[in-house]
Specification:
It is found in: Membrane. The protein has one domain: MFS general substrate transporter like domains (Growth Hormone, Chain: A), CATH 1.20.1250. Helix content is 81%, strand content 0%. It contains 23 helices and no strands. Helix 4 runs antiparallel to helix 5, helix 6 packs across helix 19 and helix 13 packs across helix 20. The longest helix is centred in the N-terminal third of the chain and has 35 residues. It starts with 7 loop residues before the first helix and ends with a helix.
Length: 493
């Protein structure tokens, strides 16, 4: 458990740290909005610009391929210029992308805006959880680090709502352009507002700004003793000696990072990297993007016909996502990451199997509307979203941002985010082709099978990190055997 000299005082929740994490997480609302609004906007873009299904898949997935570039670049950039300025860059990229997409006279300009926004997504997904993790205490890290995922959910819901409003009340050519372009306004305010927040104390220590780091820690801690303890732990992890000098200057400029991550990683770092890559891979390989991005198509296949009802049904997905993300934020530091992951993934397996069955029945029916199968399809879709967002969704970002050592954290997390974006792009760009090849029910049976593999991976390879200092993670990942991991998890629980 985290050390602290203030007794009960140190157990209190620090409101200033919460405020910092909330502001940093606002960039995720913009990303979530872009994801949610595109699911409905594509219906109107297809009608207005006459694009094909293949062009829709590319439009949906190109954002994530560009985010791959953004996430890899952001890891190194954040080590050089700091976490705050990296969030600012993400906001500016979102703003430029939204302006181009809102202008959108043709498919080429729309794609260009989508690509620029995608690079911003990569920056945002990499940096928001890292910043939140680095300013939080061990007792509140789960909640604060899950805020970016909660904000993504809020953004997705806003996108679904504006899909409905703009699609219903505005003409076709203006409606979808306003859906995509309105995100430029909050992006501008966030780019400026984040500069009022303090820099990550862990980054400051790594760059040698020790007095500034100490001042920040006094702000985000509940007592001077707690701040002092955290300061000493961070200095030790960063390799700062008794004279407050960095022992290995290469830790400061990041020149050793890629070598220590990929070329000659220590056994704990190798395990951390495997865990981060695995959890990010399975987050999207289990099919959440197919549901979030193509929910109107899923409900249309199930029997919902009018555009208005399709938009309303997708709003239900957004509401479900928010409700269970809020629940998850309070459970992460109480129940733990591992338990939530296993319960979440198990529920997803069942929900996806039921969704696959109900959609298969609709496909095979000669009736125009099979009411029970339609109802079961909608319910199982909501249940899948609920289970995903109470565990796998938020835990992925919390876990990946907290397990790496300080000098490897930004770029280690960025590798996980890059894998995340590749899988997101793979699913979003291939889902239409997959369900045309094996039926839409078969596609969700496939996702159910992948979820079983995910459950097994989480069970055998992901130890519990609840309540551990960031500086203690290497000890958590030092156990030699899976049996030791299971025993360790049992004692922690």
């Amino acid at each position: 458990m985290e050390r602290g000299g203030g007794g009960g005082e140190d157990d209190k929740f620090n409101k200033y740290a919460l405020a910092c994490a909330l502001v940093a997480s606002m960039v995720s609302i913009i990303f979530g909005y872009d994801t949610g609004v595109m699911s409905g906007a594509m219906l109107f873009i297809k009608e207005d610009l006459g694009i094909t299904d293949t062009q829709q898949e590319v439009l949906a997935g190109i954002l994530n391929l560009c985010a791959l570039v953004g996430s890899l670049a952001a890891g190194r950039i954040s080590d050089y210029i700091g976490r705050r300025y990296t969030i600012s860059i993400a906001s500016i990229l979102f703003m430029l992308g939204a302006i181009l997409m809102g202008y959108g006279p043709n498919y080429a300009v729309l794609m260009t805006g989508r690509c620029i926004a995608g690079i911003g997504v990569g920056f945002a997904l990499m940096i928001a959880p890292v910043y939140s993790a680095e300013i939080s205490s061990a007792k509140s890290r789960g909640l604060l680090t899950s805020l970016p995922e909660l904000c993504i959910g809020i953004g997705i819901l806003l996108g679904y709502i504006l899909n409905y409003v703009f699609g219903k009340f505005l003409p076709l050519k203006l409606g979808w352009r306003l859906m995509l372009g309105v995100a430029a306004v909050p992006s501008l305010f966030l780019a400026l507002g984040i500069l009022a927040m303090p820099e990550s104390p862990r980054w400051l220590v790594l760059r040698g700004h020790l007095p500034t780091a100490k001042r920040v820690l006094l702000q985000i801690s509940n007592s001077e003793q707690e701040a002092e303890n955290r300061f000493n732990d961070i200095k030790l992890a960063a390799g700062v000696d008794e004279n407050n000098s960095l022992v290995d200057k290469r830790n400061q400029n990041g020149s050793k990072v890629w070598k220590d991550l990929l070329v000659h990683p220590s056994p704990p770092v190798r395990w951390m990297l495997m865990a981060a890559v695995g959890i990010h891979f399975f987050e999207h390989a289990t099919g959440i993007e197919a549901v979030v991005l193509y929910s109107p198509r899923i409900f249309k296949k199930a029997g919902v016909t009018s555009k208005e009802n399709l938009m309303l049904a997708t709003i239900g997905i957004g509401v479900t996502k928010i409700v269970f993300l809020v629940i998850a934020t309070f459970l992460l530091d109480r129940v733990g990451r591992r338990k939530l992951l296993l319960v979440s993934t198990g529920g997803m397996v069942c929900a996806l199997a039921v969704l696959g069955l109900s959609l298969t029945m609709v496909d095979g029916s000669h009736e125009k509307s099979l009411l029970w199968a339609l109802t079961l399809s909608i319910i199982s879709t909501y249940v899948f979203v609920a289970f995903f967002n109470i565990g796998l969704g938020p835990v992925t970002w919390v876990y990946s941002s907290e397990i790496f050592p300080l000098r490897l954290r930004a770029q280690g997390h960025s590798i996980g985010v890059a894998v995340n974006r590749v899988m997101n792009a793979t699913v979003s760009m291939s889902f239409i082709s997959i369900y045309k090849a094996i039926t839409i029910g078969g596609a969700f049976f496939m996702f159910s099978g992948i979820s079983i593999l995910a459950w097994l991976f989480f069970y055998f390879f992901l130890p519990e990190t609840k309540g551990k200092l960031l500086e203690e993670m290497e000890m958590v990942f030092t156990r030699k055997s899976r049996r030791d991991v299971a025993a360790a998890v049992g004692t922690q629980q």
